[in-house]
Sequence to fold (164 residues):
Amino acid sequence: MDHIDRIVSQWSSARPDLDVGPMETIGRLLRLSMLLRSEMENTWKTFGLNSASFDVLATLRRSGKPNGLSPGELLELTMVTSGTMTNRVDQLVKAGLVRRVQNRNDKRGFLIRLTDEGMTVIEAAVTDHVETQHRLMDGLSVNQKDELNGLLIKLTASVKTGAD
Fold:
């Protein structure tokens, strides 16, 4: 019996009138999320990054646009607020990992581009990030991973529909 089992058992005893079945699944998902996040944060920390800085650098790297992305494009691809994005970019500029360059297509705007150092950091960080993710998923077979992914897609869609 693990921590979640104990909690569910206690609630079942304390409130037998409630169906606490979903508590077991959601509790495990929340606990797993915390564990996964902690492991990934340890990986990012090795490169002097946190989730926010990794997110921006990884987005710039995977975008396929070597000239950089506009702040609006970054916002769209990372789904954070503009104030948060400005702060993230400012911190990365100070660290020498990105720079702002004039947007040739919009003289009033600018693009955010990886510096050479930023490219070096994100290349190494994303390699370790993927290795960490593989290590974290090693306990499941390929079929189990596929099944879990399908169930998570279904649950996410169900929760999103209910939230709309």
Summary: The radius of gyration is 21 Å.
